[in-house]
Amino acid sequence: MVFIERRSVLSGMLVQEAMRKRVIRVSRETTLSDCTNRMVKNKVAAVLVTGEDDRPVGVVSKTDLIGAFYADLPIEAAAADIMAAPPLFCFLDDSLESAIDLMHARGVHRLYVSGAETDRVIGTLAYPDIVGLLYRYCRACGKSVSKVRRGTEDETNSSRLRVGDVMTTSVRACKTDETLAEVIEELTSHRCGAVLIRNPADHAAGVISKTDLVIAYKHGEKTGTPAKVIMRHPVLSCEANDFLSVALQQMLLKDVQRLFVYKDAPARIVGVLSLSDSARFRSGSCRACTSGRLIVGV
User: Fold this and answer.
1) Which homologous superfamily is 12-126 in?
2) Which member of 46, 121, 158, 231 has the greatest number of CB atoms within 10 A?
3) What are 38-65's pLDDT values in tens digits?
4) What is the pTM of this model?
5) Per DSSP, what are the bridge partners of residue 243?
6) Checking phi first, is residue 280 left (phi over 0); if not, alpha (psi -120 to 50) or beta?
């Protein structure tokens, strides 16, 4: 009897292979305004709050800032007022798979990496780092589209994952005239990173992400402001039948966390592809990457 064991592309890989060494730190007294500036400037979703001797005491994320916005907390409040504590850690020699499991179980998008001294932070691990690794391995795969030989294209393309195989089918949406407070409620209650904004004809008109809300908070917008005032457009999207590797490349190059997915026509949004979806799938962007070893038994 022959069994085919499906293996993750990340099997055997360690946190140190994907982590980033740069950690954006702030003090307890740093204002929320300054936290926002550092997140936007460094393109990160959170900053580490440190206390005495540079020891980590908490984290301020975009989600925390959005909560402060919703609660009408002054933008000059201190990081210590809203930080989540303690930070979540992993170690250099932890497996990437265990790190993803921890992130998924705790509903976070990053972990801080600790070295031999458990109270010292030496790096961060986030979904974009993991997806970049997945994409790199798919590019190196023998069945990668860049390595297709004449006469094998149909076989290769049939083995590659499509966006529709990985995307989340639920799409959270608000109307253009709904307030930012309603957008925040929709975003936080469903634990998503962005909501689609639809016009009165129910067509996709724009997107509001956590970053957009954080920037609106920084610029003094009120939670009663209509969604259409800060939404971004056009909607960045891809087709459900597109190759996952192509969609991932678009997301990484454009430095975006998600694409909305349409079927047949751009106006028909049927799902969302996020970096966290791709990272949790753990199989690179072609089915060839998931092929494991043959186990022969009786």
Assistant:
1) CBS-domain (3.10.580.10)
2) 46
3) 999 999 999 999 998 889 999 999 999 9
4) 0.82
5) 162
6) alpha
